[in-house]
Amino acid sequence: MALAAKLQLRQSQSLVMTPQLMQSIKLLQMTHIELDHFVDEEIERNPLLDRVEPRDDAAGDRLEKNDSAGEEWAEADTAWSAEAMSEKLDTSLENVFPDDPGVSDRVGPDLAAQWKSASGSSGSLGASEGFDMEDMAAAALTLRDHVGEQISFAFVNPADRLIAYDLTDALDEIGYMRGDVEEIEERLGVGEADVLEVLRKCQAFEPAGIFARDLAECLALQLARRDRLDPAMKALVNNLDLLARRDFQTLKKLCAVDEEDLLDMLAEIRRLDPRPGAAFSGGNTDTIVPDVEVRAASDGSWTVELNPETLPRVLVDQIYFTQVSTLTKNQAEKDFLTECLQNANWLTRSLDQRAKTILKVASEIVRQQDAFLVHGVRQLRPLNLRTVADAIGMHESTVSRVTANKYMLTPRGVFELRYFFTAAIASAGGGDAHSSEAVRDRIKQLIDEEASAEVLSDDAIVDILQRDGVDIARRTVAKYREGMNIPSSVQRRREKRAMASAGR
């Protein structure tokens, strides 16, 4: 069989994920803190980008200059249109932002005037005027700092201090020592007795219960500090699993006490702190700042707005680009400036479309969950990503990315956007389905309203919900109850009997 070369023409389609498209997708799911960090990195790399701050008069002046030079930039606008950039910029951004009109418009003079009126002055950090020492906040005292101060006074021997600091490194955020004693011995080259002696002294530090290795030891340390660790209390602390199951009959036998004494012991246990180190700062924590704000409008509808604090404002310095590009003769430098301008325009365009997409998704969620905002969690509707995606003409994956780690401020509190997406539970009468979150709240209410003489079993709760039109299985009720850390009917009945006996 002879071999011969021949030429064939074949046409095919494939999805290419360019770097710009991948970065645009990542921008959607970034939190506002991550977005701020990303913008700062881009500004550091790109000399044509600058951040607009509320008190930045110079930036406001540059915005006005950019908009007043309409004729000068007419050719530049044409050169950097979406069509002209199609070879270097991703032309599939519309898959992520379907309503993208192209390169975003430059900020107008109205916004610049708003910045100037809001700032009133340059707001320079180095200026002495307006600086108030009361604005300086002291750093929060961490658990390690608090323990370190006590180590300095408790230990004179440098070897003991070294062991104590090593034990401190093993503390978790609630004050428990999670390190391995044998590992510490081997690492520091000391004996077991030395480590245990230092640990014993550290367990006498404030707050009481710190350096415990488990919950039982934490409670025992606090009881010993109060001189209440008698044999009966030791037996109770050593059998916390029985206490969690509310097996009071067995506990009375193990502790050798009657019912009244056991109830007193339980009351004392409840007054202890199982997380002694939680009162101290574990480091810097990020405060939840809502990305979307929802307020009631005068006409009975809802006003949905983006929180300006979560929207980084950047501008493209085209004046600087023109000044430098006219003086640049080297082709490599011209290519660098061209790439910087493309990236700067891409970033402003992506930030604008990110904001529009978040607002569009949030507005649809508010429209779907209007009854929740008016009446509360009982009126939360079943909702999934596909419903919102179909309503606003976007892909389901885009809605999923937008709702990740974003928060909405409503008259009923701050909620993550994904809170509004709940599974549907069928209606027993064939009507509208019920939200799983609303059913969960109804189960909690039924248990909270239980009479002391009648404790509802999971089957009884199922019967009540079905009479209310909720078609739900017993195992689903049990799953929701356990998810809310509510004991079973047997455990609740046992606890109510014990409380009733104590009240006689």
What does this entry look like structurally?
Strands 3-2-5-6 form a 4-stranded mixed beta sheet, covered by helices on one side. The protein is 51% helix and 6% strand. It is mainly α and 504 residues long.
Characteristic key phrases:
four-stranded mixed sheet, 51% helix, 23 helices, single chain, 504 residues, mainly alpha, extended, two-stranded antiparallel sheet
Which stretches are poorly predicted, pLDDT < 50 over at least 5 residues?
56-60, 62-96, 100-137
Q: Could you tell me how far the N terminus lies from the C terminus, measured between alpha carbons in angstroms?
A: 105 Å
Helical content (DSSP H or I, runs of 4+): 40-55%
Number of strands: 8
Average of per-residue pLDDT values: 77
Number of helices: 23
The computed structural class is mainly alpha
Principal-axes shape call: extended
The biggest beta sheet is recorded as: 4 strands, mixed
Radius of gyration: 32 Å
Strand proportion = 5-15%
- Strand order, sheet with most strands: 3-2-5-6
Short précis:
The protein has helices at about 20-30, 30-45, 55-70, 75-80, 110-120, 145-155, 160-170, 180-190, 190-200, 215-225, 230-235, 240-245, 250-255, 260-270, 320-325, 330-370, 370-375, 385-390, 395-400, 435-450, 460-465, 475-485, 490-504; strands at about 50, 290-295, 300-305, 315, 405-410, 415, 425, 435. It is mainly α and about 500 residues long. The chain is extended.
